[in-house]
Specification:
Number of domains: 1
Largest sheet: 2 strands, antiparallel
Number of strands: 4
Helix content: 55-70%
Length: about 625
């Protein structure tokens, strides 16, 4: 699943004037009014692919990757590492003040490596297909997951290389997150004090959130306020029984800031409909007999299905409505179209890199699928070919509207493999994961290449930074996923894994048919399918209605996670909206840093608490 909609990344805008960097004579010049053109013209001798840039980018990206495992397994979303690596990378060297000043191109390399590492949680399928396999009883070793993650990540990188010329140079698609990152880097070098202020807020917030989370591990009542011990009568007591409680989670509050008011309110709406109305109703009808929070025989296992249906319908409908992008991706290009490339021919990616890299990644992916999941080589080879086509579509979608339809790509592939390999749940999930990985990494690197074009960076050096970032991300996110798998129940209360539930449910229906679904749930699923298709369709054809329509994907997620998660995210969105009304300039400037700190603090402390749990520690109260 892609990063949260209405992401604050696209709000980053620079207010820089034409500037000549005075701290280092080897730095170039910024453009006062670039329009759609480059923001920066580097000096011929400007440093770019340096050890310090790659190291800092990989380190910061690895932190984001670790954070994304915890964040993604709770919410189904993941955060990009570009802006975090750019802001913190710049701030590190602005604070240290080395003899050789950190340059804009080094900052671009740091954010490229950070973006590559941070995206590995999603690209490796560790938030969707892999935890779905875990919930089905499959146990992974470190070597198996490392081989898989490294193989599929390479596909997306090399898919994107030949797309750069058309999408970045000829059509000049905006790639909003990539453009925002380029503008942020330009703004930091024009006004470095602002960047240090943002990074200071991020770090301080992360420390505070981490300490709060650690206290909550030993004293759970700090985060899960025990109102049910004080109020045990009437509708309030019933609400507690169905998961409506006061939850003070820094990560969920931070997520609410990032996702925006529309998505936050959609989550609250979904929580009320699913847990406040449907769940008690199906229990009253006698369709479920177990504890409301049981997947096996409780209301939770029943409402899961309309929630998944809504998510699937929303994802596929959005993909179908992108038919113009699909046709554009298939349209042959005319040779000799004029381009404005800021990098010389000597810095372009050689053709043999593309050919050798794609061939190696394809072979490794086919081998990993065969040895780890027992998938026939021809099925994986077909998935690699499909992924190449769908990655071009996904890249165009993210270039135009900043939303990468990874979920839709995966669902289309699952439908196809339901026919090609009926009954083979592993093939259904992991061949779809190949598609998701290709779309995820292709979109990720194309944003970085857009940033690089704006700053006059070398595509060749950016690809090298991406490869180092992928290696760092794999080395961190795989062991952390295995740690969480051993410390907690994947798909349970602590890590509900909503994206994985959607992938798992889809695979089971395609494998077992309607017998996989609870009694009396089919009408609810059909209604959810219709609603999931109607919302994006109305948004597409009636632009005036867009501000008033909820997010179908968010409503579906709220059916899967317990309601206190959704309500806390909604609270974060409401608080940020109030901040924007009170002080729009400060909210826009500092909102991303505040949200990132809240998420990073709890996410990284989640790794610590998982280790503490494996060591035998637990709540004191």
């Amino acid at each position: 699943m892609s990063s949260p909609p209405e992401n604050l990344l696209v709000q980053a805008r620079s207010e820089h004037a034409e500037t000549v960097a005075q701290s280092a004579p080897e730095m170039g010049t910024f453009t006062a009014d670039p329009g759609d053109g480059p923001l920066y013209r580097p000096a011929p001798s400007e440093r770019q692919l340096t050890f310090r840039a790659v190291f800092v980018g990989c380190f910061l990206g690895a932190v984001v990757a670790a954070m994304n495992i915890y964040f993604g397994l709770q919410t189904g979303w993941s955060m990009g590492g570009s802006l975090i690596a750019a802001i913190l990378g710049y701030s590190v060297f602005a604070t240290l003040k080395p003899k050789k000043a950190f340059t804009p191109l080094e900052t671009n390399i740091a954010q490229t490596a950070g973006s590559a590492a941070g995206a590995m949680a999603s690209a490796a399928g560790l938030l969707s297909a892999v935890p779905a396999m875990t919930m089905l009883g499959h146990k992974f070793s470190y070597l198996e997951l490392t081989l898989w993650a490294g193989s599929v990540a390479g596909l997306g990188i090399f898919y994107a290389i030949p797309l750069r010329r058309q999408m970045v140079l000829v059509e000049k698609l905006r790639f909003p997150s990539g453009t925002a990152t380029g503008q942020t880097i330009a703004a930091m070098f024009s006004s470095g004090e602002d960047a240090v202020k943002k990074s200071s807020l991020l770090v301080k917030t992360a420390i505070a959130a981490g300490l709060f989370t650690l206290i909550g591990f030993f004293v759970p009542q700090v985060q899960h306020v025990p109102l049910h011990d004080w109020v045990q009568v009437g509708l309030v007591a019933v609400a507690f029984k169905f998961g409506f409680e006061l939850y003070l989670g820094p990560m969920m509050l931070g997520a609410g800031i990032l996702i925006g008011l529309r998505t936050g309110l959609s989550l609250a709406l979904g929580a009320i409909v699913a847990w406040g109305l449907l769940a008690p109703w199906v229990g009253a009808q006698g369709w479920v007999a177990g504890d409301p929070m049981s997947y096996a025989n409780g209301a939770r296992g029943w409402i899961l299905w309309p929630g998944v249906a809504l998510m699937v319908s929303d994802a596929i409908t959005n993909l179908l409505l992108s038919w113009r992008s699909i046709l554009e991706a298939m349209r042959p290009r005319r040779a000799g179209q004029p381009v404005d490339d800021t990098a010389p021919a000597s810095e372009q990616v050689p053709n043999w890199w593309f050919a050798a890299g794609l061939a190696s990644a394809s072979v490794l992916t086919i081998a990993a699928a065969y040895f780890v999941f027992g998938i026939a080589p021809w099925l994986t080879a077909l998935a690699v070919l499909i992924s190449a086509f769908l990655s071009a579509i996904a890249t165009r979608c993210t270039g135009e509207c900043d939303i990468n339809p990874i979920g839709g790509m995966g669902k289309v592939t699952q439908l196809l493999y339901g026919a090609l390999a009926p009954g083979h749940v592993g093939a259904n999930l992991m061949c779809a994961a190949v598609t998701g990985a290709g779309a995820s990494k292709a979109g990720d690197i194309m944003h970085d290449l857009k940033t690089g074009w704006l700053l006059g960076a070398s595509p060749r050096k950016q690809v090298i930074a991406q490869l180092w970032g992928v290696a760092a991300g794999v080395l961190v996110c795989v062991p952390i996923y295995i740690l969480f798998e051993r410390a907690f129940e994947i798909g349970g209360d602590k890590l509900p894994a909503p994206a994985a539930h959607a992938w798992k449910a889809m695979a089971e229906v395609l494998s077992k048919g309607l017998a996989a679904m609870p009694d009396h749930s089919i009408p609810a699923v059909l209604v959810a399918l219709v609603i999931g298709a109607l919302i994006p369709t109305i948004r597409h054809f009636f632009k005036g209605a867009r501000p008033y329509l909820p997010s179908g994907m968010a409503i579906g997620i709220a059916f899967i996670v317990q309601p206190f998660y959704s309500l806390t995210m909604c609270a974060g969105a409401l608080l940020y909206s109030a901040w924007q009304r009170r002080n729009a300039v400060a909210a826009t400037a500092l909102g991303f840093s505040l949200a990132s700190g809240l998420i990073a603090g709890e996410g990284l402390t989640g790794v610590v608490t998982a280790l503490l749990k494996l060591m035998g520690f637990g709540p004191l109260t």
